[in-house]
Amino acid sequence: MKVRNSYDKEGVGDKMKKETVYLKLEQDVKVPIYQVTVGDVASVTCCDNVLAAKIKVLHLFTMNVEKSKRQIISVSKVIDMIIQEYPELELQSIGEMDCIVEYIGDKKHNKLWDMVKIIFVSCIAFFGAGFGIMTFNEDVSVKDVFGSLYQYVYGREQDGLGVLELTYSLGLAVGIVLFYNHIGGRRITKDPTPLEVQMRVYEQEVNNALIETANRKGELIDVD
């Protein structure tokens, strides 16, 4: 349901004709509720504080979390919604062209669980850094590192596969799967994979190169 604005347009008609509203759209925002307003995705600035407050509560859209918890809205859509309410305003966009809106819900933080996650990540960073230093000192030889660890802990050389080799292989496989965000043809999360991100970067660089080349050759269609 669209939020109706109670701003008195008739009483301030002359003022609105002269009013300039600056809209700064954010690139990425997180919202705790389904109903998304202008103030959730953008900063609104103008001389009239009452008008700015009314614009911020204008309803943009309702998140469809069953389909996706992340939706993207363009600044042109935001401007269009504002103009529908206040057609006499002059709007200036000084922010991003598109905004990624992510629904996170009203999450209650569990301090114990947060502490467990902090300890877990700290252990991974600590032991990972230690393993990296040891492999560097052994000329990047994982076999020699494991052999030295077995010698220090058990006082003898390890024959065949042991716990270190098993956990190393398992962790390597899990890490690769999580990094590339795929198991076979199935995606783990809806986030873009590193390959998809690099492809978008490549496409953007190609487009910029084509535009720059056309501009240098004088083939760019523009006003005289």
What keywords describe this structure?
224 residues; eubacterium ventriosum atcc fold; three-stranded mixed sheet; alpha/beta; elongated; 10 strands; 3 domains
Mean pLDDT score? 81
Distance between the termini: 47 Å
Domain tally: 3
The CATH topology of the largest domain is eubacterium ventriosum atcc fold
Tell me the series of helices and strands, N- to C-terminal.
Answer: HEEEHEHEEHEEHHHEEH
CATH class of the largest domain: Mainly Beta
Number of DSSP helices? 8
Strand content: 15-25%
Q: How would a textbook summarize the main sheet?
A: 3 strands, mixed
Radius of gyration: 28 Å
The unreliable regions are 1-16
CATH superfamily name of the largest domain? eubacterium ventriosum atcc domain
- Which class of secondary structure composition applies to the elements? alpha/beta
The helical percent reads: 40-55%
Quick structural overview:
This protein is α/β, with parallel strands linked by helices and 224 residues long. Helices cover 50% and strands 18% of the residues.
Write up what this structure looks like.
The chain has 224 residues and is an alpha/beta fold. It has helices spanning 13-18, 38-41, 49-56, 75-85, 111-137, 142-154, 163-180, 194-217; strands at residues 20-25, 28-31, 35-37, 42-45, 59-62, 70-74, 90-93, 98-103, 182-183, 186-187. The strands form 4 sheets. The chain has a 3-stranded mixed β-sheet with strand order 4-1-7. The two termini are 47 Å apart.
